[in-house]
Write a structure and sequence with these properties.
The protein has 11 helices and 11 strands. The chain is of the alpha+beta class. The strands form 4 sheets. The protein has a 4-stranded mixed β-sheet. It has a 3-stranded antiparallel β-sheet with strand order 1-2-5. A hairpin with a 6-residue loop joins strand 6 and strand 7.
Amino acid sequence: MGVEIDLLANTASIPQCKVEKVLGYLREVKKAKGKRLRLSFWEELLGILNWISSVLVSGRFHLAQIVSARRAASGHFGYAKVTAELEQECQWWMSVVTKWNRVAIMLPPKHAPSPFHISDSLVTDAAGGANGGGGGFFAGLWTAVWWSEEEVECLDIMELEALMYCIFLKMVIDHDPTLLAGRRFVARNDNQPWVASCNRNDSTKPAIAVLLAWLHELQALYSFSVELEWIATDKNIIADALSRGEVRRFLQAAAHEGFPESSLVRLQMPDRSSLVSKMMSAKCSKTKMLPAQ
């Protein structure tokens, strides 16, 4: 296949020449916005991206538009037009491949995710309303944040839940990538629509699609796979307490799970303004497509 396997390090890597080749194809797509490209181009691009997806976690979730282009070219005189959606999908690949070091940790079999346990699995929650916030907990690492007035006004509860989940995952990675790299694991959240979209790896909601693309990029760059389980709010005590700013209840629940206050480490919430701006812009874009009243 051309994939370089290191059994001692348990890694798989893609040769640099293949990375340069796919970047060349992606640059062609960018230059051809609004124009048509031949069937053989789409077949070659799809072939190499399918191949890279055998190593790059989550890559297969970003091939739908390219598959559609190949199909369209097959039935329309051998050419398919580069649409905005197609360009966006190729931009995801450009971003990931450019940042990627070509090496991925080989994951355990799909049927063997680590079972959920509060000692090494994530829990997150978000609360809406004027006094709403978000919280996350992972093996003694925790964070809590109050939503801004703009976030509460512009984002619904599913979007806030998804935002908290994705940001907290990134915070854990920034703290120590080895905590998640190379793992299949289970996380929990109490918002059923977000759980369903996350596990489906797709959403018709533009703001959620923005977060899923970012989540897939994190999975690709840090070689992990996560399955999200729904948990009832009254069972999600640690994250629920954090999302409501109830410090005493959080500390009591953490201690009950074996994490005394002395063992807890707070992670500082990074600036999220750019990500939130992308979510809001995506929502506005959909609104602009509607006919004038």
